[in-house]
Design brief:
The chain has about 260 residues and is of the alpha/beta class. The chain is built from six helices and 14 strands. Helix 4 (about 105-110) links the parallel strand 5 (about 95-100) and strand 6. The protein has a single domain, classed as Metallo-beta-lactamase, Chain A, CATH 3.60.15. The protein is globular and about 55 Å long.
Amino acid sequence: MRVTLLGTGTSTGVPLVGCRCAVCTSADPRNRRLRPGVYLELPGASVLVDTPTDLREQCLRFTVDRVDAVVFTHAHADHIFGLDDLRVFNFRQGGIIPCHAAAPTLAALRRVFAYAFEAGQEGGGKPKIELVSVEGRFAIAGVDFIPIPVWHGDLPVLGYRIGRFAYVTDCSRMPPESEAALAGLDVLVLGALRYRPHPTHLTIAEACEWVARLRPRRALLTHLAHEVDHGNPRWPLPNPVEFAFDGLSFEVSHEL
């Protein structure tokens, strides 16, 4: 399975509009971060994790030419507002795209994108999607997706484990059973907003503590705010932790 990180920034993106800090004015391309999302190229299907606000730009920049399914983590704007950009894949592929999510996220998608589910004039077209409830392990093209429940403050969010890879974003705490489900990973992509405490996100230090417990072979921190300078961390990241960046791509087994 090939994994490409389409966006590794926080909800505002980086640079932050109107900001002239060292990161927002940095020449390092790793400090230019689009809203968070992932593209999975499985043996029999191509899958998006979330539809970020910047989805069209991400598809163009990182050559996303096909989307067979979407899995959603939760319904915050930065994770769903690119859903309308699925239309082009409906046009090109000639079919409906299944969208997998927990029931509250499905309800939010139906509310926010009500036009996609209403009869009426098509105009420029509507995204053709099928809402599929995630209630446990499920498969896409024969590949198992294991939902990993975590907490984003008081909001339940789903991470996903696919084989030896897991993606867990927008989190601040994790139940013991989810922690157990993340054992034996080759690559963990984990949300970590900034160095200062935040009520609904892990800090960099807290994420490193999680990695020390979970012991993946490689850990990539994502959902990074503009306080995080990719090339100049405030303190050395412990092995095997790295800052993720947009366009980072790697191969990892889709089998457990």
